[in-house]
């Protein structure tokens, strides 16, 4: 079964890292992928998202038409910064794998959720 591993954090902490510190964190992230990719547990390498200031939010307006605003609508300290899809037997295994993720500046929490499968 597939599980989404959502990586939360304050992207302002991430952008405040020095280039050397960012490189160190990325080495840890690459090592995590090198550990889990050969096991077949990573179904999709996922995506890293740009800072929240680059976002646009689309919501239904009063007349039902779309309203687009710059940035995230809600003022949140933690936002989703990346998503990785895992292939695991159950959510407990997915959580065990997620628990090995190298949390660092700008990455304060992980959430694991089953991916919907329809049809």
Automatic annotation (TrEMBL):
Family: Belongs to the YciI family.
Pfam family, one: YCII
Top-level lineage group: Bacteria
Protein name, per record: YCII-related domain-containing protein
YCII-related domain mapped to chain residues: 1-116
SUPFAM superfamilies given in the database record: Dimeric alpha+beta barrel (SSF54909)
PANTHER family (alphabetical): BLL7171 PROTEIN, BLL7171 PROTEIN-RELATED
Origin species: Plantactinospora soyae
Residue spans crossing the bilayer: none
């Amino acid at each position: 079964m597939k599980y989404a591993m959502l990586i939360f954090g304050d992207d302002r902490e991430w952008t405040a890292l020095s280039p050397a510190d960012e490189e160190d964190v990325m080495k840890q992230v690459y090592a995590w992928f090198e550990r889990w990719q050969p096991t077949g547990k990573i179904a999709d390498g996922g995506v890293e998202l740009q800072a929240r200031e680059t976002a646009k939010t689309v919501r239904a307006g009063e007349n039902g038409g779309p309203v687009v605003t710059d940035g995230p609508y809600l003022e949140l300290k933690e936002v989703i910064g990346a998503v990785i899809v895992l292939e695991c037997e159950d959510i407990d295994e997915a959580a065990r794998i997620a628990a090995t993720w190298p949390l660092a500046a700008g990455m304060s929490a992980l959430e694991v959720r089953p991916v919907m499968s329809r049809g």
